[in-house]
Amino acid sequence: MKRLHKFVIKSFLGPFFMTFFICIFILLMQFLWKYIDDLVGKGLDWAIVSELLMYAAFGLVPLAFPLAMLLASIMTFGNLGENYELVAMKASGISLFRIMRPLLVVAIIMTAIAFYFANSVLPKTNLKYYSLMFSVKQQKPEMVIKEGVFSNDMENYSIKVERKGKNNNMLYDVMIYNHAADQGNVNVSISDSGKMEITPDKKFMSITLYNGQNYTEEEEGRQSAAKRYPFRRESFQKQVINISMKDFEFNRIDEKRYAGASKMMNVSQLTSQGDSVFKDYKIRLWRYLTTFSYTNDINQQVSWLSNPNDSLRHDPKIKPDSIVDFDKTIASMSTFEKEALYQRAISNVRTNSQLISQQLEDMYSRKKMLNSYAMEWHRKFTLSFACLIFFFIGAPLGAIIRKGGLGMPVVVSILMFIAYYILMITGEKFAREDAWSMMNGMWFASFVFLPLGIWLTYKAATDSGVMNMESYQALFKRLLNLRFFGRHKPE
Question: Could you state, in order of their start, the residue ranges of all structural domains in the chain?
């Protein structure tokens, strides 16, 4: 059996690592497609882009692990079934469970590795990724001078060219306004051509102008009734303007800025921070509820119910009101009493409405932040446990389909993973909005797919024709005969 176990494990590990890196590559291409606008045209060094892609790839590992487990399981047992090796094992008296046993140990190890990665490695990677991604988004794009329009990307300068050379270094009919004096358009340089280059240290943009003139408006030196607008004009054959590239330098922000986010914490940190946020939320909720305008007795009851941890709280022990004939009570009041009652009710309603509109958004955002800690805590377990679930789905599916390679297994795996991902996103959305409990929402996809894996494993172990189309066709024909022609009665 040891030789058989080695054979099965060896047949599994090759497809697993291959599909794992393929999944990482495909998900990374999706990341590039999503953030391509934030990366292009900003003059980023390849080192920064490579670092960002590396962090993004690490962040995609929790999704790649379950998908690779599903695809590798289907490919492994599909290859064994297609080559009749699975049939030979069963004919030798080896059950499907015994064949799956070594891979079950491997799946458990992979699940533990996935959890360790999600709990220990991923928080640090997310911290570096989000801080670097924010720095990239704040990076100003490279100065792109377009023909026929003014470019104001450079501080203190406004540049316009009528035509650019094919290599984009040569400029023709150049006009440059210098706003360094902060006095408006009082200094302008015009030339028939120019050349634009960035210095080797990338600190300055050097623009060399040829055959042009400088125009500078000057202030009136003496008081006069008639306004005069003197200016100075200077001709030049060659002039060099160095424009600072300080605003276009890449600056990393401090990572501590994101250290308190839920994605940057492990399980113990999420538990501690979640408890602190929950206590603060309960205190704010108590203050929020006690600011409404009620009657005195109801105010005491609300205060008592909304703050159960207060050792000094006092239970007012309000007795239920007796049944009151409201119409009869109102009819017995005078006009003045009715008016006072109505005005007081309207005033209370307006006050409560203003308090709700002022505090509701703040309480909602705090509750979402509280839910984010709980969601991230559960996600570290659900995505890791998905590796084990997809093993129990992929292994029996491969044994039933009996097709190896990258054909049918890829199609089935993608459909299965898409269904799981849709259910996972749906459950997370309901949990985030408090429509479901956090446990039900975050584990919704697992609750659906785990019974499916158990059922498929049972069907594969009993050699049931789940994927046999002939059995479904025969069943369909029998149902049609029963429906339209009735049961056949022997003569």
Answer: 150-248
